[in-house]
Request: fold
Amino acid sequence: QKEVEQNSGPLSVPEGAIASLNCTYSDRGSQSFFWYRQYSGKSPELIMFIYSNGDKEDGRFTAQLNKASQYVSLLIRDSQPSDSATYLCAVPNTGNQFYFGTGTSLTVIP
Amino acid sequence: EAQVTQNPRYLITVTGKKLTVTCSQNMNHEYMSWYRQDPGLGLRQIYYSMNVEVTDKGDVPEGYKVSRKEKRNFPLILESPSPNQTSLYFCASSLSIDRNSPLHFGNGTRLTVT
Reply:
């Protein structure tokens, strides 16, 4: 079982729609959860982090965490073509390693 | 400006010729790590360091070495590169993995081994 799993996509949504990205993790002791955005050939950049169960909103982005289900998601409201990228879920585990999912490729269609 | 700096950005070399990719951070971060990124496989951790003189293997350490003699620097060494080490490499740092702080990434090094 992989430490962090994501649906690789590709996911296509029309401009203005809500994009929903999902991630599951295996280490029940993990305490923090991060979402990164990566454009092709570039380095990952941090979008959001969440530590507590529930929702956390930052502008057009909402992160959702359910520790009982070991599930974290990212919602992007009012999707823009500039949101087209690969989104990476990252989870540090109790063994001091930072694990990443393989990423979900998102395309926002104008 | 707070940043992680890795060099070079692009490197083409031949099998067996030792090389070093440098990584430096100016944020006084304790945790540093190297990843390689390959299509379909995502980011895989090569080595990480919790602090000076403390290094540990990640999931794909074979063929790589690291050192952490100073807090700011974490070089990646390929003693005898092989074509299967052709990849995009990222150095990253975090204030402390224990404090739930995020990783900050360098700009990447694209390595080609022929």
Q: What stands out?
A: Chain A touches chain B through 22 residues (CB under 8 Å).
